[in-house]
Amino acid sequence: MIARATGLAPPPDAASSSSVARVMVCDDSAVIRGALARMLDSDPEIDVVAKPENGKLAVDTIRSARPDVIVLDIEMPVMDGLTALPLLLRADPGIRIIMASTLTTRGADIALRALRLGASDYIPKPSSIGTIGDESFKRELLEKVKGLSRLRRRNVKPVRAATPIVLRTAPPLQARLLAVGSSTGGPQALFALVQGLGRSIGVPMVITQHMPATFTPILADHITRLGLMPCTEARDGEVLAAGRIYLAPGDKHLLVEANRSGLRARLTSDPPENFCRPSVDPMLRSAAAACEGRVLVAMLTGMGSDGLAGTTRIIEAGGAAIGQDEASSVVWGMPGAIARAGLCHAVLPLPKIAPKLLEMLKGARP
């Protein structure tokens, strides 16, 4: 699992135990702080409790402000976000921190390094004030803040599905491929999953994570740095080898094709699906056909229902699927969609997914 600071969080109080997410916004730009605060305060489930202008002030005020979540800028004077991160986690080990990163290679590297050091998630920082009001940015920010605040409080409401969740009996499956879909909260979940899988997986692993093109090569590098299975952005036409991880590049759909040498990757610039490119659905649809159903799906935390149609195709072809449970998901959208549709053979907390996948992959043949 990801290493994280340990210790006792500050005593709970009426504010922190309520359903309202208490948020600190830390950014050196007064304009950005104000814009983010207005965006967050527009949601009745969120209360902005502090707006420090640098990391030192954030550390100085965390105990009095008692936030559940901090939106932390990376580059600031006096004390930057990466320096402040361990100090904030030491002051409140239960705090959830979202790193606000510029859409640059350096910004992506720092944001993903912060995730490995204990940050909970990241959000790509708009390049201009004009784009900070973008609806997709606002939706992503609000979902991450509310989801992480819920995880902080461990206050998970029972699922009220229109149809009861029914688990399927796992079929006899000699899988040829492990296919993973993730979105909101995904990078941390992927780090934990890969660490849990170790080196013993006997098939190729393909991942579609909703992420900008600047970030995906950095994510692949950080997964490789875990020291287990090597991970690269998939290249068009390359053969997929057992024990390696292939990540869909930002702004490209990753498809899987069969040829004489086994399985290979195909990248396309086809239109977005579910408002996403890369999208999980094209990857899973193509994998179902290329592997004749011999695919094991792991659907991790994420907003929306991308992957539902593709998982349906996998199950219809004879494959199997595992979904992350609501209690450990930042947003129970993508895994919740396949669970409610009755497509899952197991719905598990994040730490239990890798052992279950390894169990189901026994006897797998590439």
Summarize the structure.
With 366 residues, the protein is an alpha/beta fold. 34% of the residues lie in helices and 19% in strands. The chain has a seven-stranded parallel beta sheet, sandwiched between helices. The protein has a five-stranded parallel beta sheet with strand order 2-1-3-4-5, with helices on both faces. A two-stranded antiparallel sheet has the order 10-11.
Overview of the structural elements:
The longest helix is centred in the middle third of the chain and has 19 residues, at 135-153. The chain has two domains: 21-153, Rossmann fold (3-Layer(aba) Sandwich), CATH 3.40.50; 177-361, Rossmann fold, CATH 3.40.50. The protein is α/β, with parallel strands linked by helices. The chain is globular. The strands form three sheets. A seven-stranded parallel beta sheet has the order 8-9-7-6-12-13-14, with helices on both faces. A five-stranded parallel beta sheet has the order 2-1-3-4-5, sandwiched between helices. It is 34% helix and 19% strand. The model is unreliable at 1-17 and 155-159 (pLDDT under 50). It has helices spanning 30-41, 55-65, 81-91, 105-116, 135-153, 186-197, 216-224, 280-290, 308-316, 334-340, 350-361; strands at 21-26, 46-50, 69-73, 96-101, 121-124, 177-182, 205-209, 231-233, 245-247, 253-259, 262-268, 295-299, 320-324, 346-348.
